[in-house]
Amino acid sequence: MTDAPSPAPGRTGLRAERVSRTAGGALVLDGVTLAPRPGALTGLLGPNGSGKSTLLRLLAGVLAPETGVVTLDGDPLRGLPRRELARRVAVVGQHADTQVGLTVADAVRLGRLPYRRAWSPPTAADEEAVRSALARTGLSGLAHRTWHTLSGGERQRVQLARALAQEPRELLLDEPTNHLDVRHQLDLLALVSGLRLTCVMALHDLNLAALYCDHLVVLREGRVAAAGPVAEVLTERLVADVYGVRAAVTHPAPDGRPHVRYLGAPAGRG
Amino acid sequence: MTGPGPATAGRSGREKDGSVRSPRSRPLVAGVAGVLLLGVSVALAVTLGPADIRVADTWSVVVSRLGGGPSGLSPIRDGIVWELRLPRTLLAAVCGAGLAVCGVVMQSLLRNPLADPFVLGVSSGASTGAVAVVVLGVGGGAVSVAGGAFLGALASFALVLLLSHTLGGTTDRVVLAGVAAMQLFSALTSFVVMTAADAETTRGVLFWLLGSLTGADWTDVGVCGAVLVAALLVCGGHARTLDAFAFGEETAATLGVPVARTRLALLTVTALLTAVLVAAAGAIGFVGLVLPHALRALAGPGHARLLPLAAPAGAVFLVWADTLARTVLDPQEVPVGVVTSLVGVPAFVLVLHRTRSAR
After folding, report:
1. d(CA B80, CA B250)
2. Is A14-230 CATH 3.40.50.300?
């Protein structure tokens, strides 16, 4: 099966080391180091403008860091051919959209592009990867629906399936649940956390992050404010410090996952 | 018709075994059918017109000219076939194929349903170049109208690339830069025509601007055909890559596409092809804008299917449009661009209407 390809020992996977990036003259990322645990789901938290999306784009190789380096198994991304990178690292954005009348199968098949050669038809491996990606995301029955007939939740699942068809070992997700209702948010996150790929996912909802992530990295103004296991990172102090919001953090669940209850008024200084 | 497995059988089979093969995965069959239809269209179109020519006559002329002995036709009729109708019909086919393919590529690459082969300002640049030669006498007779048009088209494309690069290089910037160039060169053309041209020259220029295959000769066919083949090879090699642009450039990049390089290569190839076609036949509208939409509605969005269909479909369409243009008001001639729009728009509306329920 294609799920859970555990990384070979000694391989470091995808790492960002002391990366910085400016946008429009402002420093968006300032010396951030991120080394997601292989096979785990790392949640990337932080207020708007804290640099989450920029960090993901650096990790995806879409954007180059101005200082620092992003490496894949120790090799700088800059020196890797794009196709090779696309076979290792897949990306799901906030809400990809298209005017093109693609079917679900067409869209998922795009994930095979890094493996395809010009002028040649898809191979059996291509078709099998597409079939498997559709099955894992529960989309097999929708394979022939066209894009514009899909709901927002279905579209995000198609994007996830497309990413899985790339057969990546690293999966980057930028607020994939942003435009979804609660049910579809839970569906998608359960799906992602069950993949057992090395995932880095930017999220806004602290409780969803607490429910599904293994680790958290919190950014504030382009720097890492906290990083570690969920229960250690997600504290009342952190919510107050980073978001400026008073909150009560409890641990009602037997597995000790924290729950954040916002107390309404903004936190005082400090 | 051409073998087992029509769309409906494919559909039921697919649902049974859960396979995800596309019901429209027969680009080869469609392409071959298109080329056959094109051959028949060319053969028939050559026979239509004031002089009575039969398909067999055309055939014997072609055989004769390729070294197979005398054709048995009078020199005048021989000349009508070989010097007038055949090059004109073939140029129509080449232009139609090229414009349709350019339209498909532009719309996908720029993610803009309004993009067409002229979106990079190529046609308005060509107009300015042609007008500069015809009206102002630029080049002192050493540069032909087609040469002036080609240079004007390249100048306009260079301006668009420069503008879009300085504006940020994204696809929407390319479209905006193209619109700016279009306006600029249109204004220049109007200015030159208004201030310097007499009525007769204006009429000639206008006819050319609307698109006309009147002056087609074998040199045009050869040059345009060679550039078309080269462009088809480049675009065909990028068919899968074009698919990847459906969700935008950033997604294409994460799928392993070298976005900036691909965009520059495809823009350059389509601009060059368009410039050559416009220089030979003027700015024939509608084909490149609307035919891609009609084909997408019929054949789906995948470029491995779309591109092999677009070339023969555009060719067939323009062959018949030009035949109509030169016969309908005989002995007067209608600019072929007028015919493409008058015939094409109702057909386009019909196609969109029929596919509306499926969307």
Report:
1. 54
2. yes
